[in-house]
Amino acid sequence: SQQGEEDPQALSIQEGENATMNCSYKTSINNLQWYRQNSGRGLVHLILIRSNEREKHSGRLRVTLDTSKKSSSLLITASRAADTASYFCATDAADSGAGSYQLTFGKGTKLSVIP
Amino acid sequence: DSGVTQTPKHLITATGQRVTLRCSPRSGDLSVYWYQQSLDQGLQFLIHYYNGEERAKGNILERFSAQQFPDLHSELNLSSLELGDSALYFCASSTSGGGHNEQFFGPGTRLTVL
């Protein structure tokens, strides 16, 4: 079942512009992770933000987390053509009593950066 | 390069057949997770192994099974294959079974069932 829902489903911007993608989820989480996937390839881990964190930066990436609204956003600044990919948020449940933190993925946002 | 390897990269087979997908986690990682990515279902968790023991099962069909060996590599066995099993299969590894750990994904195995 899908827990995270990314918005928008697709986003097309010019190189140099900022791209913002949003993710909403349904249940309490332990942490939230963002991944990038180039067409048909593997998932690349971008950033992990814990449930007690509100904002995190990594290079041109900025992630925010609002647990009261059960939502997160990923901002890519000064986008490049190489950022063209699908972006997924993934959450793991806060009550993973079995000691398993499997990820639940959203359907992803397809980002196209036009040179 | 995540450090997680998967073989084979591509697999084409016929309905009714059985295949084995292999995953080697990053050095030192004890956890291996298997995921399936299909066009209609998206990315779905299948099963999790930690240090050789099964920890959790997700949307895994009874025709599918997995194991993790003493050297920590894992295999996903898919049997009585159907057309709908065509998908990308990913494994991911993480340091422990606990939370707050990133999961690093392999490049995936693309399975095509004809």
Task: Explain what this protein looks like in three dimensions.
The complex is a heterodimer of chains A (115) and B (114). Chain A is an all-beta fold and 115 residues long. Helix content of chain A is 0%, strand content 56%. Chain A has strands spanning 5-7, 10-14, 19-24, 29-37, 43-50, 55-58, 61-66, 71-76, 85-93, 104-105, 109-114. In chain A, strands 2, 4, 5, 9, 10 and 11 form a 6-stranded mixed sheet that branches. In chain A, strands 1-3-8-7-6 form a 5-stranded antiparallel sheet, with no helix packed on it. In chain A, strand 7 (61-66) and strand 8 form a beta hairpin. The radius of gyration of chain A is 14 Å and the shape is globular. The termini of chain A are far apart. Chain B has 114 residues and is mostly beta strands. In chain B, strands 2, 4, 5, 6, 9, 10 and 11 form a 7-stranded mixed sheet that branches. The interface between A and B is medium-sized, with 28 and 29 residues.
Keywords:
heterodimer; A: about 120 residues; mainly beta; six-stranded mixed sheet; B: about 110 residues; seven-stranded mixed sheet; four-stranded antiparallel sheet; about 0% helix
Topology (elements, then pairings):
The complex is a heterodimer of chains A (115) and B (114).
Chain A: E1 5-7, E2 10-14, E3 19-24, E4 29-37, E5 43-50, E6 55-58, E7 61-66, E8 71-76, E9 85-93, E10 104-105, E11 109-114
Parallel strand pairs in A: 2-11
Antiparallel strand pairs in A: 1-3, 3-8, 4-5, 4-9, 6-7, 7-8, 9-10, 9-11
Chain B: E1 5-7, E2 10-13, E3 19-24, E4 31-38, E5 42-50, E6 53-57, E7 64-68, E8 74-78, E9 87-94, E10 104-105, E11 109-113
Parallel strand pairs in B: 2-11
Antiparallel strand pairs in B: 1-3, 3-8, 4-5, 4-9, 5-6, 7-8, 9-10, 9-11
Radius of gyration of chain B equals 13 Å
Q: How helix-rich are the residues of chain B, as a percent range? A: under 10%
What is the mean predicted local confidence, pLDDT of chain A?
Answer: 89
Alpha-carbon distance between the termini of chain B? 31 Å
Average pLDDT over all residues of chain B: 92
Task: Estimate the strand proportion of chain B.
Answer: over 45%
